[in-house]
Write a structure and sequence with these properties.
Layout: H1 2-21, H2 23-30, H3 32-51, H4 53-56, H5 59-87, H6 90-114, H7 126-131, H8 134-143, H9 151-156, H10 161-172, H11 178-192, H12 199-204, H13 209-221
Helix pairs in contact: 1-5, 2-3, 3-5, 3-8, 5-6
Domain Major facilitator superfamily (MFS) profile: 1-230
Membrane topology: Multi-pass membrane protein
Pfam families: Sugar_tr
Length: 230
């Protein structure tokens, strides 16, 4: 039982690793908006599997659902930052990207509060708690089709300049947006001369060694800062 419980808890992180590893390939091939929509479907399926696990009397369904949730979360983290950052105007880009950290913390707090035995953590209601992660995914699945694809993706990967201009006007309103388009073109020109490193190449690259150390230290020590206790 201890082994099964440990696997059920940790398999979320394994799924997250797989999801984040494949995010770059998927976003380049299919675009950020399509990936987010498909990711929402994956989360809804995972929530449904976990929510029905008690009726089916199958702990394997919780295991599978947790794994699928991990993949969805691993895909969502980089996708969210990229899409929100790219559709936001420059003056709001930093604020828009910082909202993700706020909502992660809010989601953790809501999960821990809802998991109390007086609320959804009871013997009869815990399947609803497990399935609750599908609700935000459903909201995004319904609302996201009204948003355009990321303008930088349309221009840099699809080379659709008219589609990029249409998306910019839909997002930022009518006006002269040639400066933003020029910035995207400069970024595209820079990317052509920049080698994209794999994870293994990144670890082996001496010039990035100290930056890598800094990220590892920050990511590790943040677990000790007390945020989970708070």
């Amino acid at each position: 039982l201890l082994f099964l419980w440990s696997i059920t808890v940790s398999i979320f992180g394994i799924g997250g690793l797989l999801g984040s590893s494949g995010s770059r390939y998927l976003t380049v091939k299919f675009g950020k908006k399509k990936c987010l929509l498909c990711n929402n479907l994956l989360m809804i399926v995972a929530a449904s599997i976990m929510g029905c696990s008690k009726i089916a009397q199958s702990f394997e369904m919780i295991l599978i659902g947790r794994f699928m949730c991990g993949i969805s979360a691993g895909l969502c983290v980089p996708l969210h930052h990229q899409y929100v950052g790219e559709i936001s105007p420059k003056k709001l880009r930093g604020f828009a990207n910082s909202t993700s950290s706020f909502f992660w913390s809010l989601g953790k707090a809501m999960g821990q509060i809802s998991g109390q035995r007086e609320l959804l953590g009871s013997q009869s209601l815990w399947p609803m708690l497990m399935a609750a992660c599908g609700f935000p995914a459903l909201v995004q699945l319904v609302t996201l089709p009204f948003f355009p694809e990321s303008p930088p993706y349309l221009l840099m990967h699809k080379e659709d300049q008219e589609g990029c201009k249409t998306a910019i006007r839909q997002l930022w309103g009518e006006g002269h947006h040639q400066a933003e388009i020029d910035d995207i073109m400069k970024e595209k020109a820079t990317m052509k001369n920049t080698k994209i490193l794999s994870v293994l190449e990144l670890v082996k690259e001496p010039a990035l060694r100290w930056q890598l150390y800094m990220i590892i230290i920050l990511t590790t020590t943040i677990q000790l800062c007390g945020i989970n206790a708070v």
